[in-house]
Specification:
Number of helices: 3
Structural class: mainly alpha
Radius of gyration: 15 Å
Number of strands: 2
Helix content: 25-40%
Strand order of the largest sheet: 1-2
Order of helices and strands: EEHHH
Largest sheet: 2 strands, antiparallel
Strand content: 5-15%
Distance between the termini: 25 Å
């Protein structure tokens, strides 16, 4: 599983976004690519693959806390750099 900010060039529904200019976020490890123009990042190895093997991590909120922490980093960087989002 990974985290990225996705976008659509040509929305076909009113709730989709359009973004023609973008920059990779420093808080995301992997380089930008089609569909993830701001970069992306895998979840840590211990919780990357969903299944019974990570039941404890799901129940103890390790997974959700990791995702919340990463989203906080993304939102802080967007705010600090004053990146305009659609």
């Amino acid at each position: 599983m990974y985290i990225c900010i996705s976008y659509y060039n040509k929305p076909n529904r009113s709730n989709l976004i359009t973004k023609n200019e973008y920059q990779k976020l420093d808080c995301l490890v992997e380089e930008a690519e089609t569909g993830c123009p701001y970069g992306w990042e895998y979840l840590p190895d211990t919780i990357r693959n969903w299944g019974y093997s990570i039941t404890k991590e799901i129940v103890t909120k390790e997974v959700v806390n990791c995702i919340i922490e990463k989203f906080d980093m993304i939102l802080n960087e967007i705010e600090e750099k004053k990146i305009k989002m659609p």
